[in-house]
Amino acid sequence: MGTDKKSGSSSPKHIPEGDYERGKKIYKYRCAQCHAIDSKKSMAGPTLHGLFGRVSGTAAGYGVVWTRETLFDYLADPRRYIPGTKMFFVGIKKEQERADLLKYMEVEFSSMGIPEGDYEKGKKIFKQRCSQCHVIDSMAMKTGPSLNGLIGRTSGSVAGFDYSDANKNKGVVWSRETLFEYLADPKKYIPGTKMVFAGIKKPNERADLIKYIEVEGAKSPH
Q: pTM (2 decimals)?
């Protein structure tokens, strides 16, 4: 969604709980003509596959990172949110309908090619392959930044850690989907990163690790 720079826009304080089935209908009648959601193929508009965590226009410097909050604002009035966009969709004025559409997108994205992870297996992977450089139960720094609160955080944003410029400028929001891609090959995902970790090639192992990070990273740090 969107190919141009983001205008100023404030995020809503509250987004209603969405309904998947209603969102599915909204997507079918108001989005599917121009956007695919289940593949990486572009139509009249770009694919929405992997939208959460992606930067608008997929180019560095183009402002907005698509999250639940920014999409909620954008869908109300795309042309106001991104002046000059090629998107001719007039938007969805009703907050509940926007929340329903987001719910559908969230569910569909979360099921695309990412296996359901196993917490205990992920715990072992974290201990063997991550704990030398990262903690997850506190905000302490080791060779790498703390992973506590990682989900929903923007890359390169932990205060006091000396990130590479590549990491700070990437602008990705860490989600289940973006982590799944990143962990396959960190240096390919963020060229120039200081991260020396070669990655995890097996999808199931990445999903296991993400499951552990989701659970432990959401706990309050010691």
A: 0.57
Residue 141 tokens read as: 């720094």
Q: Does residue 206 contact residue 220 with C-beta atoms inside 8 Å?
A: no
Residue 207 corresponds to which tokens in the numbers above? 């999903």
Per-residue pLDDT in tens (0 to 9) along the chain, 222 residues: 443 434 334 444 478 888 989 999 999 999 999 988 766 677 888 888 777 766 676 433 445 778 888 899 999 999 998 888 888 899 999 999 999 999 888 777 655 567 778 999 999 999 999 999 999 999 999 999 999 999 888 899 999 999 999 998 888 888 888 898 899 999 999 999 999 899 999 988 999 999 999 999 998 887
DSSP per position, 59-99 = STT---B--HHHHHHHHH-HHHHSTT-S--------HHHHH
**Domains parsed from the chain with CATH numbers:** 20-111 (1.10.760.10), 119-218 (1.10.760.10)
- Quote the DSSP letter at residue 58: G
Amino acid 149 reads G
Question: Exposed, middle or buried, 41 (CB in 10 Å: 0-12/13-18/19+)?
Answer: exposed
Place of tokens 């720094």: 141
